[in-house]
Structures are given as structure tokens and as C-alpha cells.
Design goal:
Structural class: alpha+beta
Distance between the termini: 93 Å
Number of strands: 8
Radius of gyration: 25 Å
Number of helices: 4
Low-confidence stretches: none
Order of helices and strands: EEEHHEEEEEHH
Helix content: 25-40%
Shape: elongated
């Protein structure tokens, strides 16, 4: 029968509360995807304004050449939101605490390794159960300044749809100002 030695200290992983943490990277855990939430009111406003411009462009195309429309993403696809990579990172600070933080997005593969001495700028997440996320990394071992980038609502919607929505909003403002002036 194997008995366990209960005298060994158990190292608990804690979520740091400080804004800036300095320590050594212990381990980069397996990453997983997380979805960015898309607020329905924002999406409806953007799609309504873009739809007005799309309708106007469709009318112009039909009058001029009978041209075809490009493929559009559905409301369901746009509402789903973009996914980004979440990589849990464990590090040991100067007080010998084992800390867990989350890295959102991608970094170059050679940017961060176990045993690197790093200074992290952290931001708490909306869910208090989740560890804070990394805003900026200063890799003191290599001298690199790293900023992870994630997908946002605006990058998910894309420049063409946002430009179309801006034109639609300008068109609505123009129509409203003309009706007020009369």
C-alpha cells in the first residue's frame, strides 16, 4: 500500500491582484478558443445603416448594369462573434507564489519561453473567477516588449461593412437634416 506524505507543502495557484507583476515563466498551458461577445443593439444599428447603403447601391447597380451582389455574412454568423486564442500562463513571482494569468491572442512563437524573466501589465476580466489577462509583456530575458492582439468586434464586422454602415449613417443624417430644414 502506498501512503502519501502529507507534510509536503502544496503550492496553490493564485490569481494576482496587482496591476504589474514580475516573475519567471513556469509554464505556458495548452491554449483554447474563446468567443468575443457581440452586443445585439450594436450589431442591429450597424446592419441597419449598412443595409440602407446596400439598398441604395443595389438600386444604382440595377439601373446601370444589372450587376451581381457579393456574398454577405448572415446575421447569425455576425452575432456569433470572433474567436481568439486564450493561453493560460503560470509564473512564479519574487515571493515564490505560483500565479496564473491569461494571454489573449497570439505572440510570435519565439517570444516567450519557460524560465524567461518577465514583467507583466495585467487587467482584471469582467468575470472575477477568471485570472487577469495580460495587456503587455516586457521580456526581461530578451529585452522584447510584447503586446498580444486579439480579434475585436470591429475587426469581426470588417472594414467593408463598417464603411457601408458609416455611409448609411451619413445618408440618414443628410435625409434628417434636409427634412428639418424644410
Amino acid at each position: 500500500m502506498v501512503t502519501m506524505n502529507t507534510d509536503l507543502p502544496i503550492r496553490r495557484v493564485v490569481h494576482p491582484t496587482e496591476r504589474i507583476v514580475t516573475g519567471r515563466v513556469v509554464r505556458l498551458l495548452e491554449g483554447y478558443p474563446r468567443e468575443v461577445r457581440v452586443g445585439q443593439p450594436v450589431l442591429v444599428a450597424v446592419l441597419t445603416a449598412a443595409g440602407l447603403t446596400g439598398l441604395l447601391m443595389l438600386l444604382v447597380r440595377a439601373l446601370l448594369s444589372g450587376g451581381r451582389r457579393g456574398a454577405r455574412r448572415s446575421f447569425k454568423e455576425l452575432k456569433k462573434g470572433p474567436e481568439f486564442l486564450v493561453t493560460p500562463v503560470r509564473l512564479r513571482d519574487g515571493a515564490d507564489r505560483l500565479l496564473e494569468v491569461e494571454l489573449h491572442g497570439h505572440l510570435p512563437q519565439s517570444a516567450l519561453h519557460p524560465a524567461d524573466h518577465v514583467q507583466l501589465t495585467l487587467r482584471p476580466q469582467r468575470d472575477p473567477e477568471l485570472p487577469p489577462r495580460i495587456e503587455r509583456i516586457v521580456n526581461l530575458t530578451t529585452g522584447q516588449l510584447l503586446t498580444p492582439r486579439t480579434a475585436t468586434l470591429w475587426s469581426h464586422l470588417g472594414p467593408p461593412l463598417l464603411l457601408q454602415a458609416a455611409l448609411g449613417a451619413l445618408l440618414l443624417v443628410g435625409i434628417a437634416s434636409c427634412s428639418v430644414l424644410r
